[in-house]
Specification:
Elements: H1 2-8, E1 17-18, H2 19-40, H3 48-60, E2 64-67, E3 71-77, E4 80-85, E5 89-92, H4 104-110, E6 129-131, E7 135-138, E8 142-145, E9 151-162, H5 165-170, H6 175-191, H7 210-225, E10 230-242, H8 244-284, H9 291-306
Antiparallel strand pairs: 1-5, 2-5, 3-4, 3-6, 7-9, 8-9, 9-10
Helix pairs in contact: 2-3, 6-7, 8-9
């Protein structure tokens, strides 16, 4: 039973009648029915056919519909899925195909998408029409804990589109709402899997490995949204920061780490320069120093190279050992 349901909820692309051809046929039938009524004046059996034809023609007129590029219509006849029309243009189908509304109404009502009648993607689509255009979800800032339990603020932007219209209509309730909810859930789960920064060696962090984290987010969203017939074209972090209550403390920690890293680099460079100076003096025979005087020179050079304040030179007018 589950297998049959899964097979039924896969999109089947179908074609319907050309709208212009059916328009010509129905207009011709309408004029013929009117002419027949005028000719027979509803007298005798010949007058019954035009009377019956007029309401039938009036009903068939409601089968016309149009599709713009990257727009589709799901055809449902008395609860039975008949297929999806993806070809843009002027069409005619069974007038008894169900008429529904895309859940952009929910998006406008809840404020996920602000009403903007000038943009086609924000118009309310009727007759089970679904937009196949790429859509952008600007997620709200979420307050979550990272892998180490630090509270952070995180937000993402997701570019998505409907791939399977049958799944979007029949497998989930309000697929646009489903995308919003699952995007928030995936982002919360992702943030808990990685530390904000200061990770161990070769550890992926949210701040330093944006590309890797974005790929992981896109992969998780793809897995979650497949059942709704939605594919994710791109997912990226657009906001990442510590929560306000710990932001100042973390800023001081980052500043201290930066100072320590700079000091380590300065000391490493100073040691290299002192070693080079002593080696050059010894190889070229400029001066011969015992261990005590060599230690004094090393100390003086390290003070000069590592000190933050400017060093005042002292000229020695005596000998090196006085």
């Amino acid at each position: 039973m589950a297998a049959n349901q899964a097979g039924a909820n896969r999109e089947r692309v179908v074609r319907v009648q050309n709208g212009w051809m059916m328009l010509v046929v129905l207009v011709a039938a309408l004029f013929a029915a009117i002419a027949a009524l005028a000719l027979f004046r509803v007298e005798g059996p010949a007058g019954v056919a035009p009377i019956v034809a007029l309401p039938v023609i009036g009903t068939l007129i409601f089968g016309f519909f149009t599709l713009q590029p990257n727009e589709a219509r799901v055809l449902v006849l008395f609860g039975d899925y008949k297929g999806t029309v993806r070809h843009s243009g002027f069409h005619w189908g069974n007038p008894f195909y169900s008429n529904g509304a895309e859940d952009s109404a929910w998006m406008r009502k809840t404020g996920v998408v602000k009403p903007d009648p000038t943009k086609p993607s924000h118009r309310l689509l009727g007759r089970n029409k679904i937009s196949l255009r790429a859509r952008t979800l600007n997620g709200e800032r979420l307050k979550v804990n990272d892998k180490r339990g630090n509270p952070i603020e995180i937000a993402a932007v997701v570019v998505w589109r409907v791939h399977d219209t049958a799944q979007a209509i029949f497998d989930v309730d309000e697929y646009a709402k489903y995308v919003v909810t699952q995007s928030e859930s995936a982002l919360r789960h992702l943030a808990s899997q990685y530390p904000y920064d200061d990770g161990e060696e070769h550890e992926i962090t949210l701040r330093s490995n944006i590309e890797e984290v974005s790929l992981a987010l896109a992969a998780e969203l793809h897995e979650r949204l497949t059942k709704a017939g939605v594919v994710v074209d791109e997912a990226r972090l657009m906001h990442l920061a510590y929560a306000p209550e710990i932001a100042q403390v973390m800023l001081r920690r980052q500043q201290a780490e930066a100072v320590i890293a700079a000091r380590q680099k300065i000391v490493h460079g100073a040691v290299s320069m002192v070693h080079m100076a002593l080696t050059e003096l010894a190889e070229k025979g400029v001066v011969q120093l015992d261990d005590e005087r060599r230690a004094a020179m090393v100390s003086n050079l390290m003070v000069v190279l590592c000190g933050e304040a400017e060093v005042q030179p002292v000229v020695n007018t005596g000998t090196l050992y006085n």
